[in-house]
Amino acid sequence: MADAAPRLHALVEQLLGAPFPVRVRAWDGSQAGPPDAPTLVVRNRRALRRLLFKPGELGLARAWVAGDVEIEGDLYTALDLLAGLIWERGEDARTLSEALRDPQFRAAARGLLRLAGPPLPPSPPPEEVRRTTHLHTRRTDRRAISHHYDVGNDFYELVLGPSMVYSCAYWESPAGTLEDAQRDKLELVCRKLALTADQRLLDVGCGWGSMAIHAAREHGVSVVGITLSQEQAAYARKRVADAGLTDRVEIRVQDYRDVTDGPYDAISSIGMAEHVGSTRYLEYATALHALLRPGGRLLNHQIARRPHRDESTYHVDEFIDAYVFPDGELAPVGSTVTQLERAGFEVRDVESIREHYALTLRRWVARLEAEWARAVQLTSPGRARVWRLYMAASALAFERNRIGVNQVLAVRTQPSGTSGMPLRARTWN
């Protein structure tokens, strides 16, 4: 009798103590749940074992990456419906140990165990990174960056498009093109830094060289771009050569802690500081402050999370940590501003561009889905599934104000206290 889906749907609702908002189709062909909702396809019993042996987000992520579960219908709608059960349960949600004291919860869990079959925990998908601590040494940072960025330049070209910019674009209108929005973002950074010809710019986490090339070509500055990714550096150097800018742009494989050839007139750090880690952030800010000349500006473009009432309860996102950004950490924007000021900077402007990142991510997802077969060929089915889930879920997180992204403009003031900033702020608009 094909009844796995009705049993599973009922057991999940019993475990959650709330309606399960999506339809379920099980491995035996049975279905249950709201008829007009997206469908969660549970392809095998192994998916249940993954969830039971690693309850919560990581177990679900493993099932998704391995292809044990799939979504039929609109992915954004499904994730939006599931967000309140998975990502947004809040600080007051009961822990697993608390739930296990509930007889109804224990009964539902036993029912799932019976439905899952022999209790052998499957191995995690090969795309998962296994770590225990966030050390943020030069070696562990290099390994983490390699995991994320050395997936393959061809894959990133497919997702990011010709701009090859892997950070939030700056949109004039949702109807605009991704390439125009990324160009406008790079120009916004240059204007905030007030770049002029013959200045020296340090681009920390330079990626595939887009900011370095734009600043050198459009503003006449000399640029040093640093990255920990060998693949990014090779790609960026070729782009620099093709643009005829080798006399103005140098790309290095180098840790920010090892840059010693300051002073620079300006520093851009776009989407890099998320990799620094809370234990190293003051060191990062202090290092950049020391590399700037007095009067020089830093533009720090960084994703931020919302603060917790009790920061000791904060835990790194399990899926992102295991599959996307190993050792990545998000901090509230207030913490970032505080650390920059502790390092000696004067923070002059903070601009939130949260909605812009949601638009950017949706464009990246659309490009990935349109070239799905090619993406799988360039990486692996699991890796392509990681990027699709990560980007779609992140788009919703920005839209729902679970996370944000901010451009923080800071200055290393002169010893006299002079900042060199104009009297009227936001002259870059």
From TrEMBL:
SMART domains: PKS_MT. The keyword Disulfide bond does not apply. Keywords: Lipid metabolism, Methyltransferase, S-adenosyl-L-methionine, Transferase. One of its GO terms (biological process) is lipid biosynthetic process. Residues 116-137 are annotated as: Disordered. Belongs to the CFA/CMAS family. This is Cyclopropane-fatty-acyl-phospholipid synthase.
